[in-house]
Fold these 2 entries.
Entry 1:
Amino acid sequence: MGQVARVLIMRNVDRLYDYIVPEALSMVAGSYVQVPIGPTTVEGLVMHLRASEIQPVAPEGTVENPSRKFREITGLLDKKTLAPDIVTLILWLSETYICSPYIAYQTVVGTRKYRETPDEATSAIAEGHVLTEAQESVLASIRAKQGYHTWLLHGVTASGKTEIYLQLAADIMAAGKQVLFLVPEIGLTPQLRTRVEERFGKRGVVMHSGQTPKQRDLAWSKALSGQASIVVGPRSAVFAPVPALGAIILDEEHDGSYKQDSNPRYWTHDVANFRCRYSHAPLILGSATPRLETRYHAQIGQATCVSMPYRANRNPMPPIVCVDSKEDPNTRVGGIFSQPLDAAIRLRLAKGEKTIILLNRRGYAPYVGCQSCQTIYACSQCGLSMTYHRDRVFRCHRCYVTAPATLHCPTCKKPRLGYMGLGIQKVEAELIKHFPDSRIMRADRDSATTAKQLEKILGDFDREGDILIGTQLVAKGHHFEGVTLVGVLGIDTALNLQDFRAPERVYQLLVQVAGRAGRGAVPGEVMVQTSMPQHYALDSAVRQDDTGFYQQELAYREELLYPPFCRLLNLVYSGPDMRMVSQTAEKDADYLMPLVAEGLTLFPAISCPVDKLQDRYRWHILIKFSAAQETLLRMQLAGLPAVHRNLRRIIDMDPVSLL
């Protein structure tokens, strides 16, 4: 009896193909093969083998076989066979996120090449730090439960979560298994890499997109061969080929960076959960501000929450104070720094202490407009205002369009363009003007384009800086013992976004950046400048009422039927012709209308809040559904007609943003 192989061919087609396995070839699922398709021969990957009595067929069109159904595999390639768990992961990713098998393969494996790496002496694992009582309790709980389980480690900033991760990793490595340790940003990997190297020596590797192809290949190969016992990296490292997976750790699990923003739009949590379930390994989700969905899953018993409500050194959490910018004499007349924040910075400088200023807006001025005709100088591709940068360039941070800065309005031609709003470069300039003798540093995606540059900026600030001005890059994961003041500017913009998750994101950002203050011997303080001090997200942060915020936000989500009380699917359409985009979206909405009779909520096709991006018009259809309705939804989606070649239709399952 022969065999039939189901093969993923290395082309972006939407299905797998069946081929006869010649008796002379021996292969398994995960073998790379050469297969015919049409008039050519291409590389393929065997995904599944089954027994069959079908014999190889004669060429198409002959009397013996007028229709030809199966063809033979023509050769076995000399490439490293993929492990069964990776093959299964590719299939799961393709099905779950409705992408072609080839796109799923590219996401999981990509163009990496297996490289033989010399065996290195196994490093001894260094002793961990002495644990607090809370850390001991958390570790004991996790160690007591074997096999697959999801843990939510809800610990305040500086409670010692990283030490728990490292000691759990040591346990798993001692048992001969491997650990994936994920962080949300590449910029956080250098700091973590140092701690991993100190603890585990050469048994750890780092994997991220900022590496050279050779560096990525070597890290991938060490993980696959088992030489690397712990893999550290951001979102993409969840696909590292570890044959003996013992646990996955997601630090800062609340972070939106764990959602992939291109096809396939996967949630790292879901991929990690699938891999842990397959390998019977624990999944540890850690955060000081867990996602609402994660907390709710723990509440209803789908995960176990273990808490650390105090800092490891028992230092108090810094108080958060809101300064009403409508009432402050400085900000009322257009000043950047309120009187209390200005005085607090001066006090820290006098004491030799450090300050962090958070403003999550790049550039110098986020709005450029004509003071004569009131026209906004907008991006040609999305219609949103350009941002002025101090290198005399207008930039669109959505479309990456640039233009030379000018004072002449494109509409009325008068030299009356003005720069409005608050950007991080403007704050930096004001800090230099107000505090000329202080050492001021800036950390954003313009000043730190690589992980190495960010590492240098943060290291310089820790050693010799006085004030660090930064975007959300400075809000998470960093440990600076000398920081005793955090100032937050421009938070109102984030609160006013047209997204149901905006209050949660603002609350998380405030609590996270507040955690940078008072980590050393001197207590910290946080000042938030806002015109909305009464907003419940800000009020909860000020009162440090984490439970209150969670309950209020949960009630709001339940009333309006948003996650975790439903799931979302966002169909996003884009193209250069607005009429074609809108008509396609509306036709698809009509096709999906039968889902309403089955209890799903289907919103009308409308333009996206950001209705044009990179010179492409954007419409979307939002669908709310339950877990029980998912199969029905997927069946209906499978029947959607193909879109015009000039259009794109993105299927975003569980979207992180609706903009």
Entry 2:
Amino acid sequence: MDLSPESSQYDNPDLKLPEFQPGPSDLDFLHQLETAIANAAGEPYVDATEIDRRFNLTCFPQHYQRLILILYAPGHKRILISRAAKDRPVAFSVIFKLLLSHPRCRQLAALPFRLQMDFVVESPRPINFYSVGMEVGGARHFEIGIDGLMFYGTDNKLHLFPPGDSYVRSVMGMGQLRDYLHRAHGEEYLRTAVFKCFRSESYLSGKDLWLRLYRGHPLVGALTKAKVERAVELAVGHIRQTQEENGKFLYYYDAALNSKRDHEHPKRNPDKNPYYNILRHGGGGLTCVFQEKYFHNGETIGNIQRAIDYLVAHIRVQDYQGREGAYIYSEKKAKLGGSGIALYLLAEYQLLTGDTCYQKWADRLAWHLLNQITASGEFIYYNLYLDIPVTEEDNQKYFSFYYPGEAVCGLAKYLHLVDPKDRTPIFDKLRQALEFLLVVRPSTRASEYTVVPSDSWLMMGIKELWDFKEMRDPLYANFVFSDAQSMIDHLYKVADAPCPDYAGAFYYNYGDYPYADGARCEGLLGAYELAIKMGDQDKAVHIWRALRLAAWALMHLVNTADSLYFAPDPALALGGIRFKYTRQWFRIDTIQHVASFFAKMLPHWDRAEVPSS
């Protein structure tokens, strides 16, 4: 296995993006604009000559085909003003005064507002809106978030969809873009419209600074330990803010629509008929555990306890050979993964705090999981499915690729709570399960495997088992490192990324839209930690380079105050971690995987970042 690529493939991804550092003149111009907008709520006065003089001193493009100004304020429809150069350039002050004179400007100016400026420097090019796309190359390629649209209908009215609107409107693909515009304008109108595609230099006002936007998102900049720490703090802050008294987490939120209606269950009323995935609940608790293990500030202990209490309230006891076991029951199902992650959480909590009050439940969950391993080594994937018991004969109908890895993780961590003299039966059962998962399943379930490995829970479980010499099998380690290498092989590098911000994201086929994936990163981190445990520094160094680049990509998903300039309720969305670059929804598990990865990565940071001699 080749584990020694050129490190230059991973270095400084931000250097490929536009460089921007506002200077004194840019900030002076910002303060002038902010003052003028704020005054719109009172008695507006604009000295056009002075505005243009100060604009001419800035680093912003002085020659542009079109200027677009957009004013945002929380809870209000934005204001968009645009003008194009015709016979002669249009002065900045002309467009800015149009913004100030908008009937709703006074209303927005009375609130915390953000101003976006898009400079269209190059001439737009004609396109056929229904033939361009992300998957095609050449002149027909349309890059979501980078390319914008302007179009005229039969009424000769101009409509604009600036490049960053894919981010603002939560649009990830051409189908979604067409659906969005069909809803806004009608398909018949669009079919007869004349379209052009354009790109822009985009800037956003911040607190005493200008931010450069790329794909609608503020530039991430160089990855630093402080930024990773801040991302964890924001994520856990959101979890703590939104956790209910009964321990439940905010399951789903769409920051663009200010809605809790899950796109996977669009007909469910989130208030009257909420859907809640118990596995993802357990992951929310684990996020708080990993945050506490790094920061040691005690802030999340109560949140962890409430999360566990919610799980305990959903436990059902069952007899196995005269001994009580227990499983997690929710949504009329008892999932192997739900009990596995619950056990993982209980064991992590007890090891973190020394609190043994949940030990009896951990013992029962573990006994249930061990009894779900059949003679063949295959787990029973559901104990109940829609309240009907699942037998070994019916098991294949309910196959889950991920549940066994989650169960292995839970049992591996639970072993630390077991007296050493009582571990042997658990080791034996786990060996049976791993033989099936690593040797048998790849043949019997070949169609379930993807080109980018996805069984991160199993990778992490084997890493956890390496703490016990009885479970140190080369077969297990080879699986982890082989999957890690396959992940790295399908990770956009700085040198080959189709767009600069693709670097660090995964792809199935080269050219795919970037897939920054916290869950896979957790598995990759598991491989790094296994290499450290095994004393293999070369593997560790190689994997860390990929981890660092992947962490940089994931930072594009973190909701900061600056990245929520468009949000109707930025306070609620703050700290959420989105699923995709230009998708605004997030779930507790999208937060969990990224924030947990960051929190588990941080303890290794100082050692890993020291250049090797």
